[in-house]
Amino acid sequence: MGFAERYLDLADRLWRGEEDVENAGNHPFGTSADEVVEVSEGIGFVPSFANVSAVATDDGLVLVDTGGNLLAAQVHAALRRWTRQPLHTAVYSHGHIDHVFGMPLFEAEAHHHGWPAPQVVAHEAVPARFDRYILTAGYNAAINQRQFQAPGLRWPVDYRYPDLTYRDLLRLEIGGEQVELHHARGETDDHTWTWFPQRRLLCCGDLFIWASPNAGNPQKVQRYPAEWAAALREMAELGATLMLPGHGYPVVGAERVRQALEDTALLLESLHDQTVAMMNAGSRLDEIVNTVRAPAALLERPYLRPVYDEPEFVVRNLWRLYGGWYDGNPAHLKPAPDAALAAEIADLAGGAARLRQRAAELAESGELRLARHLAEMAALAAPEDASIRTTRAAVFERSARAERSLMARGIFGWAATPSPGRSGPAGA
Fold this sequence. Notes:
The chain is an alpha/beta fold. It has two domains: 3-267, Metallo-beta-lactamase, Chain A, CATH 3.60.15.30; 336-427, Serine Threonine Protein Phosphatase 5, Tetratricopeptide repeat, CATH 1.25.40.880. Helix content is 43%, strand content 15%. The chain has 15 helices and 13 strands. The strands form two sheets. The chain has a seven-stranded mixed sheet. Strands 8-9-10-11-12-13 form a six-stranded mixed sheet. Helix 6 packs antiparallel against helix 7, helix 11 crosses helix 12 and helix 11 (338-349) packs across helix 13 (368-381). 43% of the residues are buried. The mean pLDDT is 95.
């Protein structure tokens, strides 16, 4: 059995639940390969941290996404072992850096061979995203170091902007292939899903990722769950027989494609509707976060496990979208500095050492949410106390081990590993 057959067999077994997507080797944000999976004649799929999809046409290749800034060379080499066709058009599914950094290799290749320069097509909001990334490069470096536990990560400031942009819908004909680009606000405001009607092929970008939707990421800008769900339902009506996502595995067969899209929409709609109903009833954010729950049966789907983002964060993002930053607690409108509040609580408790002791007891008993509060307060109240720093690190290390989502593990793991230059108590 060749690589493509093995890979598609793994995708089938993951769908059936015979393999676990939460195993490190199967994680949708952990796969990477040096080969192209030819999922159908003339359709290639490069598994990577962010996947790349390729369609061979009479005028050259059409790519959906081009590879990330760390893996673009690997993606390019894999495609070139599959075909020597020139690149005609690359579509950015959105402007995240793991999807948009492969063009220089293809452009250098075109120049070397005297081929026509390839074009890049994207939604009209992508250039503004790149502008914002340049403006906030330091901040984006810091938050992605935390999210991915990557201390040396540096945020890029040199982007390949699109040649052609569109607003709602763009239809292209390339080498006899009809290519439709549809805009949707979902994980980002600049998302494109691409439909190849003659091949019944849907390239959905990150609107489906073999995980609970990335609609709540606590360190990133606004996401749009209701519009995301609407786009999923629109895609479900296409009758696609093959779906190639931005992360994770191909979904093969019309019934499976429809199920994956509709289940993801239902999950987002449930979180959205529960949250909005409680907001309309006047509930505080704290009450909503601790009340709203995703349908358990959906979270058990092999392709909706909360291994990257998680529903609790989606609820907070919905509050931010509809309600702003004030959470309904009047003490939080103009709060005291965290360190001042921690010092006051420590005094009331009998000292920061008592907070440390209680944090350790709570962590040992599995009450990690409370333990984190007390450990952080103890460290803020007595930042030079080595025993408190040790307990704080242990609480957050235990917290990281207990989490399923990469985002929670990343933030808690970062807090558990003090080093110079990191924000937080005692340099943590």
